[in-house]
Amino acid sequence: MSITHHLTSPFSEADIRALHAGDIVYFDGPLFGIRDLTQIYIFDQGNKPPVSLEGMPCIHTAPSLRQVDGKWEKICVGTTTSTRMDRFTPGLIGTYGVRAIIGKGGLYQGSLDAMRTYGAVYLAIVGGAASLETEQIEEVESVYFEHLHPEALYRFRVKNFGPLTVAMDSHGRHLYDEIAAEARRRLPDIYARLGVA
User: Fold this and answer.
1) Residue 2 CB-density burial (10 A; 0-12 exposed, 13-18 middle, 19+ buried)
2) Strand pairing of 24-34 and 121-124?
3) Mean pLDDT score of the chain
4) pTM over 0.85
5) CATH assignment of 4-194, given 3.40.50.720, 3.20.130.10, 3.90.226.10, 2.60.40.640?
């Protein structure tokens, strides 16, 4: 049975260890937007983040923003598929202390191992929810590595951000893998009912 959690970022390890696969999360506070180019810039090109990510959630996004009188304003902030950024996740968690990755589609075993070791989770967001996400972002507080925009590093302030499903937890559960395994288990019976050899 899933539990709904209302949290405030930055998250402690205890906050994260209390979450289990299938639970629902909403949270208030800072949220960092990050995507491929930012992580290539950090990990492959050796540029450390100019701000602490300790305890923070990061969402996989390349937001649509505009500058008005020198300030960044949101237009649309959607979420992208996470798997192509999987190779960066153990470093985000182990080196920089990120506690939650938010995205679509999940991550692989190396990321799950890092989550278990350091206390982090993967929070899945429903595809097509960009309008809701954008409403829940109260402000674009800062943009770092601006030359990489729209794949810079963004600090948002969010209110009641969610619902997010704990799809990978710090206890080693991976809902995407579990669902795939259950589908494979059921396939022979489905084929038999359909008369498919």
Assistant:
1) exposed
2) unpaired
3) 95
4) yes
5) 3.20.130.10
